[in-house]
Structures are given as structure tokens and as C-alpha cells.
């Protein structure tokens, strides 16, 4: 098997520039305050993914998951370290696709497909399939700024899965989809997985990561603290346990309502 | 220590609730068939797309899509649509022609003053539109820049192409008018035309490229550019003949050099050498505006130097762009 993604000692630092005016800048200089503050989003992250592996990436909000995906996708460059990937990359990053709000769904479809490396003939051949899967009906020629957030995500996801990529990134893409669409997407991702595409899947839902992934990475404030392939006796379940996502809920008031939905979720999960 | 653990427990609890309610995900069974092995026929390399103007020009399909979309977008929700890109220059032409031609009586010493003026209007229009559209291009495509991996030079370059698309019919109109009036083209004039076009294309692309990147950091630039571009009409010899500037140049050599250093000014001069001078030559009117048509004798030398400097500038702007670009997604 060949290496699909290689991440070596990658760090990413954001400088938090507050939007300052000239006045604020000069006052800051005179008073010798620091003019910018930095934030370390990723610290010395290293791992290698083989072609065809399905990797789940978990961690709390702000732990750097989307940042890592942006680096792998090539939208951002790491400050330290190197990232190398093999083949075509497609996917969705941080809920939603990169769409031009003023353009119609159709125009965005062509544009996005072109950016992902599809040529005109390829896009036209797959056009109907993409539109069918997204199921956005008569809204195809409406500007995407008028779409509901679910429709936005549907179209984006549909384009990304039809690209025939070698690496597929999915970052909470389905968070806004409705249940039937989520099921359709999960099934599609399993199909992609079975075709030997490398999958990088970010989700807060332990059960879906468990069913989708062969391997789990856990990020904690920018540090890669659990890699089921590296940790002795590591497993996907182990990673979820590491995150304490499997512990029973102790809050009694919450238990009644959310417990029911959790159980029905589990039941649904077992069904399909 | 326990504080850290407590915080983590709390956060984990929040995440659990989240995973149960909002992010509840259906689970699809693994497809139990054999997993295909996928042989990827590619090198292991950086996922960042190869940028640069050269990289952009190697993606003609994407560039064409962007240009077409940008054009469609400009005329969405407008009744006159494409006509707007003619109304503005036409209106400007009429105003300048009446004010400078009749009020200031420039047309008396300048035969075919309308062509003299129109040459300037067309090329200044191209320059302004490239720079004006270019400076905004990255910021207005921020939703794409933030999420898609692509060479970002594509946005200023497509602004330049959109400007060219708008200017081309004006250029054709200028040519037709010159043919109707009667033009005698000559090789020197043709060389001047090509040199002028090359200067304006390279120079405006360089400026658009640099400013589009700087504008991501400080949005003041789009206003600065819009303000400065208002002056450009007065800084090229179109409402007045260049001979007026040369007369002033005798007393103010530094100002004269500054005026002449403007690449847009040189481009207009060179283009006038083909169109305007060409229409004046055959009936001897050009003699009235002295042998060389009143053009500065060092026009070609200056033009070639300016073209070389513009190419160097484009290269420098590309360098600067590449440096600024790496921080785009996080600054937007
Ligand atoms: N452009 C930016 N400028 C400054 N800080 C940023 C920027 N982008 C992200 N960050 C910071 O980096 C950290 C990691 O963000 P990231 O989006 O990767 O988190 P995440 O793990 O995806 O979280 P979530 O589960 O909410 O999606 C956050 O603290 C965030 O505030
Ligand atoms: Mg995220």
C-alpha cells in the first residue's frame, strides 16, 4: 500500500490581528503594547495515512480539527513542518462548501467542480447525478445565498462525492442535513470508502465515527494525543473512550429528554 | 491539576450532549464487500496548488468559467446590461469633447481631436477597470478563497480579462472610425501600437495583482485606488496634445519627467501614434503639427524601457503576492 497523506511535525500559529485603525495602532506603539497576539492552533502534529484508510478525527470545539483539514486540503500552508498528499483531494471543510453567494447553484456547481479538477466534459457527464443526489429541485438556478443551510451543504457534499477523488475530507458536513439526507450521505461515504479512497472524517458523533473509520486521531488543543495506530492496543473505541464520549450522562435533568433521543438514535443506528 | 481535569470533564460533558442532540448522526453499516485497492498514479507532493500567473494560465477552463460568471454577475439585475460598459465611456467622451474641444478650443490645434481623445478614453478605461476590479477581486471572492485550494492569482487575472472583454468592442469601434476617416497605417505606427498595448497590459496586471493582495489586509486600498483613478484621465495626453506638456517641460524638467514616466501616459501616446497620427498623415495635416506629429522624439526608447520595467514590476508583484497569499484564508 502507498502513503496517501504524510504530515510531519506540523505546527500552525494564527496571529490574532484585531481589526485596528491607524489611531489604535499608533497609540499601541507609543504605549509599547504588543501590537499582535498569536495563537497556536496546532503543535508538532505528525502522522501518516495509507491509501484507503478511513481516519476519524475527533476533539472538542477549537481543538484544531478544521485547521488540520485546511492544511491537508492545501487551503492553508503550515508554519512549520511539511504536508504531502497523493492524488486528487475533494471534500467539505468546516460546514459548507466554498460557494460564491451571488451565483446560482448551477454556476457554483460548475465552478466548484472545475476548482476540484474536473473538466467540462466530466462535469457535464455527472451533472444530472450530482443534481439528483443533492435533490435541490427547482432551486438549481437560484443564487445560493437564498438556499437554506441544509441545501447549501447538500449541493456541496454532492459535488465533492462525485469528483472521484483519491482523498475525501469531510468536516461536519452533515451537521445541518436532515435525517434522510444524512443516511444517504453516510451510505455514499461507505461506498467511497469501499472504493479504496482515503477518508478523513471529522464528527462529534461517536457512533458514526465508529462505523465509518478504521482509525481514530484525537486532537486536544492542537496536540495529537491519541492515534489508534500508534498507541498500544489502540482502537477506534479506545479513542472514543479516551475522549470520555462514552461515559453515561450524570446530569439527571437532562437525562430524560436526551436519553430518549440517544436511545432512538442507537436503535436507528442498529437498524441501518 | 484537578482544575484541568474538571475543565476537561465539563467540556466532555458538553460534547456528549452535543453528540446526542445536535450532531446525532445516523450510522450506516460498513459495506462488507471486499475493499477495492485504489492505485493512485501520482506523486506524493504538497497539496498547495502551484500558483503564479503561469500556473493560472495553464487552467484555461477554470479561468473561462470565472470570467463568464463575473460578466454574468455584473449584469444580473440590470435592465441595460452589457450596454453599461459603453454608456460610461461614451458619456465621458461627449463631456470631454465638448468641454475641451469647444470651451478650451483644443480641437483647433489638434486635427481629428475626437480620435485623439478616444484613443485615450479606450486605453484608460481598460487600465481603470483592470485595477479597480483587480483590487477588489480577492476580497469579493473570499468565500472561495477561504475554502477551496486554488491559485489565487486567478482572481486578479480574470478581472484583467473581464476588462479586456469590455474594452475590445471599443477598440474595434476606434479602428472602424479611423478607417472611415481614412487611416494610412505604417510599420512604425504598428510597432508603436503593439508596444503601447504590451505596456498597458503588463503594467495594469502587475498593479492589480499587488493591490488585490494588499486589499485583503487593509481594505482602505480599494478606496485609495478608486480615488487615484479619477485623476488618471488628466494625467494622460488625451484632452490636450502632448505638445502642451512639452512646452511646460522646458521650465519644469522634474515634473515633465514624472509625467512622462507614467506607463499609462506612454501607452496612450504610442497608441495615438498609430491611430491618430495615422489619420492625419495622408492629407498633410500632420505637417502642421510638426514632422513627428508632436510626439516626443524619445518615445520609442522610453516605451521599451518602460515595458522592460513593467515586466520586472510584474515579477516583483508576483513575488509579493505569493508572500501575502499564504495568509489569505486566515485573514479573511
Ligand atoms: N483565521 C484564524 N485566526 C485566528 N484564530 C483562528 C483562525 N482559525 C481558527 N482559529 C483558532 O484555531 C483554533 C482551532 O480552530 P478549528 O476551527 O480548527 O477548531 P475545530 O477543532 O474545527 O473546532 P470545531 O469542533 O468547533 O469545528 C480555534 O481556537 C480558533 O479560534
Ligand atoms: Mg471545525
UniProtKB/TrEMBL annotation, chain A:
It comes from Marmoricola endophyticus. Residues 250-272 are annotated as: Disordered. Keywords: ATP-binding, Nucleotide-binding, Transport. GO terms for molecular function: ABC-type transporter activity; ATP binding; ATP hydrolysis activity. Gene3D superfamilies: P-loop containing nucleotide triphosphate hydrolases. GO terms for cellular component: membrane. Belongs to the ABC transporter superfamily. This is ABC transporter ATP-binding protein. PROSITE patterns: ABC_TRANSPORTER_2 (PS50893). Residues 5-246 form the ABC transporter domain. InterPro entries: AAA+_ATPase, ABC_transporter-like_ATP-bd, ABC_transpr_TagH-like, Bact_Polysacc_Export_ATP-bd, P-loop_NTPase.
TrEMBL record, chain B:
It comes from Marmoricola endophyticus. GO terms for molecular function: ABC-type transporter activity. This is Transport permease protein. The chain crosses the membrane at residues 75-103, 115-139, 160-183, 189-211, 223-242, 299-317. GO terms for cellular component: plasma membrane. InterPro entries: ABC2_TM, ABC2_TM_bact-type. Residues 80-324 form the ABC transmembrane type-2 domain. Residues 1-36 are annotated as: Disordered. It holds the Pfam family ABC2_membrane. GO terms for biological process: lipopolysaccharide transport. The keyword Hydrolase does not apply. It is found in: Cell membrane. Belongs to the ABC-2 integral membrane protein family. Coiled coil: none annotated. The keyword Ribonucleoprotein does not apply. Keywords: Cell membrane, Membrane, Transmembrane, Transmembrane helix, Transport. Residues 1-12 have a biased composition (Basic and acidic residues). Its main location: membrane. PANTHER family: CAPSULE POLYSACCHARIDE EXPORT INNER-MEMBRANE PROTEIN CTRC, INNER MEMBRANE TRANSPORT PERMEASE. It is a multi-pass membrane protein.
Amino acid at each position: 500500500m502507498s502513503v496517501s497523506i504524510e504530515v510531519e511535525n506540523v505546527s500552525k500559529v494564527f496571529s490574532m490581528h484585531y481589526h485596528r485603525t491607524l489611531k489604535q495602532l499608533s497609540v499601541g506603539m507609543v504605549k509599547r503594547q504588543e501590537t499582535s497576539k498569536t495563537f497556536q492552533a496546532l503543535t508538532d502534529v505528525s502522522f501518516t495515512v495509507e491509501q484507503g484508510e478511513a481516519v476519524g478525527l475527533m476533539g472538542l470545539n477549537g481543538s484544531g480539527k478544521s485547521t488540520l483539514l485546511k492544511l491537508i486540503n492545501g487551503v492553508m500552508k503550515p508554519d512549520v513542518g511539511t504536508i504531502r498528499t497523493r492524488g486528487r483531494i475533494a471534500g467539505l471543510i468546516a460546514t459548507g462548501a466554498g460557494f460564491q453567494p451571488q451565483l446560482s447553484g448551477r454556476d457554483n456547481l460548475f465552478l466548484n467542480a472545475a476548482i476540484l479538477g474536473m473538466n467540462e466534459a466530466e462535469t457535464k457527464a455527472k451533472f444530472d447525478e450530482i443534481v439528483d443526489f443533492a435533490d435541490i429541485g427547482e432551486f438549481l438556478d437560484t443564487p445560493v445565498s437564498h438556499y437554506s443551510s441544509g441545501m447549501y451543504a447538500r449541493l456541496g457534499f454532492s459535488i465533492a462525492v462525485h469528483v472521484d477523488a483519491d482523498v475525501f475530507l469531510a468536516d461536519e458536513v452533515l451537521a445541518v442535513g436532515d435525517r434522510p439526507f444524512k443516511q444517504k450521505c453516510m451510505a455514499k461515504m461507505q461506498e467511497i470508502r469501499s472504493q479504496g479512497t482515503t477518508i478523513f472524517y471529522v464528527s462529534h458523533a461517536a457512533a458514526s465515527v465508529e462505523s465509518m473509520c478504521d482509525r481514530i486521531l484525537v486532537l486536544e488543543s492542537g496536540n495529537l494525543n491519541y492515534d489508534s495506530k500508534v498507541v498500544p492496543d489502540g482502537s477506534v473505541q479506545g479513542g472514543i473512550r479516551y475522549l470520555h464520549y462514552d461515559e453515561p450522562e450524570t446530569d439527571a435533568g437532562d437525562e430524560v429528554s436526551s436519553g430518549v433521543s440517544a436511545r432512538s438514535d442507537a436503535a436507528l443506528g442498529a437498524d441501518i | 491539576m484537578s482544575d484541568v481535569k474538571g475543565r476537561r470533564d465539563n467540556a466532555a460533558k458538553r460534547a456528549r450532549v452535543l453528540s446526542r442532540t445536535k450532531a446525532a448522526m445516523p450510522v450506516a453499516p460498513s459495506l462488507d464487500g471486499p475493499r477495492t485497492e485504489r492505485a493512485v498514479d501520482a506523486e506524493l507532493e504538497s497539496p498547495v496548488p502551484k500558483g503564479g500567473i503561469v500556473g493560472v494560465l495553464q487552467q484555461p477552463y477554470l479561468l473561462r468559467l470565472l470570467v463568464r460568471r463575473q460578466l454574468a454577475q455584473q449584469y444580473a439585475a440590470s435592465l441595460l446590461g452589457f450596454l453599461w460598459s459603453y454608456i460610461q465611456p461614451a458619456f465621458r467622451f461627449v463631456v470631454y469633447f465638448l468641454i475641451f474641444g469647444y470651451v478650451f478650443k483644443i480641437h483647433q490645434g489638434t486635427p481629428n481631436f475626437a480620435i485623439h481623445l478616444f484613443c485615450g478614453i479606450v486605453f484608460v478605461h481598460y487600465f481603470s477597470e483592470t485595477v479597480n476590479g483587480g483590487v477588489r477581486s480577492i476580497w469579493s471572492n473570499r468565500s472561495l478563497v477561504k475554502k477551496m485550494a486554488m491559485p489565487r492569482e486567478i482572481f486578479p487575472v480574470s478581472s484583467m480579462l473581464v476588462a479586456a472583454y469590455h474594452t475590445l468592442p471599443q477598440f474595434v469601434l476606434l479602428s472602424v472610425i479611423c478607417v472611415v476617416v481614412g487611416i494610412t497605417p505604417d510599420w512604425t505606427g504598428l510597432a508603436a501600437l503593439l508596444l503601447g498595448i504590451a505596456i498597458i497590459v503588463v503594467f495594469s496586471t502587475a498593479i492589480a495583482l499587488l493591490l488585490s493582495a494588499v486589499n485583503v489586509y487593509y481594505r482602505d486600498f480599494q478606496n485609495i485606488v478608486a480615488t487615484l483613478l479619477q485623476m488618471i484621465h488628466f494625467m494622460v495626453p488625451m484632452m490636450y496634445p502632448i505638445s502642451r506638456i512639452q512646452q511646460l517641460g522646458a521650465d519644469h524638467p522634474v515634473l515633465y519627467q514624472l509625467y512622462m514616466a507614467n506607463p499609462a501616459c506612454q501607452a496612450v501616446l504610442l497608441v495615438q501614434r498609430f491611430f491618430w497620427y495615422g489619420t492625419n498623415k495622408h492629407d498633410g495635416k500632420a505637417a502642421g503639427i510638426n514632422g513627428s506629429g508632436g510626439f516626443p522624439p524619445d518615445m520609442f526608447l522610453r516605451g521599451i524601457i518602460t515595458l522592460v520595467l513593467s515586466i520586472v514590476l510584474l515579477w516583483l508583484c508576483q513575488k509579493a503576492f505569493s508572500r501575502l497569499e499564504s495568509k489569505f484564508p486566515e485573514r479573511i
